[in-house]
């Protein structure tokens, strides 16, 4: 299946296809490990939270900053 064929599908068909693909990955594929850089970011963010240096914003604030 290529992008042209996918674009011809209805939104519902595309969502159903994505769900089927996701289910096949969850049930048929061994767990995929996160890359090392991802772990480093999580460690850094956890440290910021523990040291009360993290800044949190609401979803509404995020949307207004990024035009979403």
Give the % helix: 55-70%
Let me know the average pLDDT.
90
Output the radius of gyration.
Answer: 19 Å
Low-confidence stretches: none
| Beta-strand residue percentage | under 5%
Q: What is the H/E order?
A: HHHH
Please count the beta strands (DSSP E, at least 2 residues each): 0
Structural class: mainly alpha
First and last CA, distance? 31 Å
* Secondary structure tally, helices: 4
Description:
The protein contains 4 helices and no strands. It has about 70 residues and is mostly helical. The longest helix is centred in the N-terminal third of the chain and has 18 residues, at about 10-30.
What would you say about this model in short?
By secondary structure, this protein is an all-alpha fold.
């Amino acid at each position: 299946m290529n992008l042209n064929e996918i674009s011809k599908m209805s939104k519902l068909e595309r969502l159903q296809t994505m769900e089927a693909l996701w289910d096949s990955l969850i049930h048929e594929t061994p767990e995929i490990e996160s890359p090392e850089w991802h772990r480093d970011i999580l460690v850094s963010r956890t440290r910021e939270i523990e040291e009360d240096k993290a800044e949190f914003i609401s979803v509404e604030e995020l949307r207004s900053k990024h035009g979403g």
